[in-house]
TrEMBL record:
Main localization category: membrane
Pfam families: MFS_1
Gene Ontology terms for molecular function: monocarboxylic acid transmembrane transporter activity
Positions of transmembrane segments: 33-55, 75-95, 102-120, 126-148, 160-180, 192-210, 321-341, 361-379, 386-405, 411-434, 446-466, 478-496
Record protein name field: MOT14 protein
Major facilitator superfamily (MFS) profile domain sequence ranges: 37-502
Nucleotidyltransferase keyword on record: no
GO cellular component: membrane
UniProt cross-references to InterPro entries, sorted A to Z: MFS (IPR011701), MFS_dom (IPR020846), MFS_trans_sf (IPR036259), Proton-linked_MCT (IPR050327)
Protein's organism: Mohoua ochrocephala
Compartmental location: Membrane
Membrane topology label: Multi-pass membrane protein
Keywords of the record: Membrane, Transmembrane, Transmembrane helix
Length: 515
């Protein structure tokens, strides 16, 4: 169905370097502090993704408070969910310059500020700015580092670790829905948002737990990985000569830049040492100069990595399979979001409210979704199983369920389809793993930022599009059919590009034989 591990694994490592001396594995890789990173990411998913899944509670309060149309009010939730993901490429720049820990802490404060300011909203348009934009950007600044840090700390159990951390979304959907419902009933929606803002400050604690690995530890992880995901990515998108000639993945430019940076810092340190006999004021000025120089070097290096990933000669966009992955992401997320938003209306349309009140269909999706992420992660980590094949099978199952759901008119039928949607959508935990397979750990932050940006666009326009289709047809059937067909187009792109990638070397060799 897709390129297996063996098919797409090429070895670009220098065997002389690898075999020259044994490498002592870092105890924090796949163990130790790595599980604290999983806990941190788990809590981030509860507080961010879980809260966004529970926005239906606040949406009803906003409709009653501001007396605006459903379409206009729905944009508040869509903006928050969409911007959280759309800002991914820009958050990648922050991570490259400041690191995951600093980015997450700043994002936690910004997210809490958005919730608190929204408590004083006088109209829906005010919520667009405070909740949709401010809280959305803050959420994005915490969410991406939480995913990237798990990828950095895990080597052998990446899929399982990502699965465990992302189950926070399902738990959060339950916890935050119950919490917001209780707070709105007891204190009103304004005080509920204020309290939720205070709770969101715990995101800063989660960010503080994201202790960065040293460059030495990261380099050891790259070399020690026998089944190198980064090498697979290069094989899918470039030949060895292309990568070396373009220079984005080669180390020589980086070494030259590091030498220049060390020379600059060394000169500052020399001035600092030579000026110890001077006055205290000049010493203080030299320390400031040294700090500014170090900060400038860090920013320059971070921006250079970010720029080369997007606009360099061998940018991520030269990887044709990765571009196909982006196209898939543009259509995939809305297909998962639309059932959550429109299932209550379908239940009402078929007079199934009594059964749905006992066990809501959205709760079935959320519950099975938790197990789906963990089970798919365990399966993908098995040495005989290809993560790519698991990913694609789950996608095919989900798109089939999306197209089938409108045909179900009984509660049992809808419950079975919803359970399959929940389980197959567990592939979300595999997305960071698939991305790392394509581009390598070094470029994971920037690459995954693009993927979640595409998901954000899908989440932003998917639900309003479904509502627009309903306004025209007075049925939700066509919303599911169109979303499913677009989703299928994305999956086809994922299937076609690797096949074309495989054929290219064969065609070239045939032409050379004729010459």
């Amino acid at each position: 169905m897709y390129a297996s591990r063996e098919d797409i694994e090429y070895d670009f490592r220098d065997d002389s370097k690898v075999g020259s001396k044994p490498i002592k594995p870092n105890p924090n890789i796949d163990g130790g502090w790595a599980w604290m990173i999983v806990l941190s990411s788990f809590l981030v998913h509860i507080l961010i993704m879980g809260s966004q899944m529970a926005l239906g509670i606040l949406n009803m309060e906003w409709l009653e408070e501001f007396n605006q149309s459903r379409g206009l009010t729905a944009w508040v939730s869509s903006l928050s969910m969409g911007i959280t993901l759309i800002v991914g490429p820009f958050i990648g720049l922050f991570i490259s310059m400041c690191g995951c820990r600093t980015t997450a802490i700043i994002g936690g404060m910004l997210n809490a500020l958005g919730w608190i300011l929204s408590a004083y909203a006088s109209n829906v348009h005010y919520l667009f700015l405070t909740f949709g934009v401010t809280a959305g950007i803050g959420s994005g600044m915490v969410y991406l580092p939480a995913v990237v840090m798990v990828g950095q700390y895990f080597q052998k159990r990446r899929a399982l670790a990502q699965g465990l951390s992302t189950t926070g979304t399902g738990f959060g959907a339950f916890l935050m829905t119950a919490l917001l419902k209780y707070l709105c009933t007891e204190f009103g929606w304004r005080n509920a948002m204020f309290i939720q803002g205070a709770i969101s400050l715990n995101l800063c604690v989660c960010g503080a737990l994201m202790r960065p690995l040293s460059p030495k530890d990261l380099s050891e992880k790259y070399v020690a990985r026998s089944d190198s995901e980064e090498n697979r990515a290069k094989a899918l998108s470039h030949s060895t000569e292309t990568i070396k000639s373009n220079g984005v993945f080669s180390e020589e430019p980086e070494k030259k830049e590091e030498a220049a940076n060390e020379e600059v810092l060394g000169s500052v340190q020399h001035i600092d040492i030579g000026g110890k006999s001077g006055s205290g004021r000049s010493m203080y000025g030299l320390r400031i100069l040294k700090t500014v120089s170090q900060l400038t070097v860090t920013v320059r290096k971070g921006f250079a990595l970010w720029y080369s990933s997007y606009f360099g000669a061998a940018s991520l966009f030269t990887n044709r399979v990765f571009v196909a992955f982006i196209i898939w992401a543009l259509f995939a997320y809305s297909s998962f979001v639309i059932p959550f938003i429109h299932l209550p209306e379908i239940v009402k349309q078929y007079n199934l409210s009594r059964q749905d009140n006992v066990f809501p269909l959205t709760s079935i999706i959320a519950t099975v979704h938790i197990f789906g992420k963990v089970i798919l992660g365990i399966i993908s980590d098995l040495p005989c199983i290809s993560t790519w094949n698991v990913f694609l099978i789950a996608n095919f199952t989900l798109v089939t369920c999306i197209l089938t759901l409108p045909l179900m008119q009984t509660y049992v039928g809808l419950a079975v389809v919803c359970a399959l949607i929940g389980f197959s959508s567990g592939y979300f935990s595999l997305m960071p793993v698939v991305t790392e397979d394509l581009v390598g750990t070094k470029h994971l932050a920037n690459a995954y930022g693009i993927i979640i940006c595409a998901n954000g666009i899908s989440a932003l326009f998917g639900p309003p599009f479904a509502g627009w289709i309903y306004d025209i047809t007075q049925k939700y059937d066509f919303s599911f059919y169109i979303a499913g067909l677009l989703y299928m187009v994305g999956i086809i792109f994922l299937l076609i590009q690797p096949c074309l990638q495989k054929k290219q070397p064969r065609e070239k060799s045939t032409e050379e034989a004729q010459v």
